[in-house]
Amino acid sequence: LLGLLSSTPLQAEQVLVAVASNFSAPMAELATQFSNQTGHEVVLTQGASGRFVAQISNGAPFQVFLSADQDKPAALAERGLTVADTRFTYALGSLMLWSADPTLAIAGSEILHTEANSRIALANPQLAPYGRAAVETLSALSLVESTRARWVQGENIAQAFQFVESGNACLGFVARSQVVAQGPEAPARAWAVPPDMHTPIRQDAVLLKAGANCAACRQLLDFLRSPAATAVIRR
After folding, report:
1. Which of the two ends of the chain, N or C, has the fewest CB atoms closer than 10 A to its terminal CB?
2. Are strands 95-98 and 151-154 parallel, antiparallel or unpaired?
3. Residues 6+ positions from 183 with CB-CB distance below 8 Å
């Protein structure tokens, strides 16, 4: 018993994190690094940022929120549900139009015309910032009305990606991080949407009221701004 106790960090804590779907893969890697360094356990729940706002507003016990935009952490701050002076931008999101079909090369937005009968996956623009960016992109291309009947909406960017990956949609507006995770050949089947076609996707992190007295929560947020974490995010 004494041996077991001596091998367990006496100050180990559990951190409950709500993380935007597009950042779930890098956050899983970062959580492992953080846990290995500190002994703290990081429990991740991924989903749509808008859905998290509703859950947190209704008492969900999340302590740290990693949103896919700035608006939702700001909205929680206005409701008094965050800790002052803890919000910061941890990543800049990048939108891509992608296909899982290895025979389909995507050089630009023209694919939306040549594949005129193909379904297009996107995240729910009411809940997910990447979905909103997708609709803004289609609007910039004057393609909202002509493509709307072909939209297949997922609650979040993870579901939109699954629609494309499974073949239920030929094309999909997804996060660059998801495409990169598929391997070096995947970007050849993707068009990087010019950032001036949609509102910048600045992703903010914030400490929630439920984590106000959690030292490990603050350590995790500090870790996300460290050079080691930044390197993982850039990759």
Report:
1. N
2. unpaired
3. none
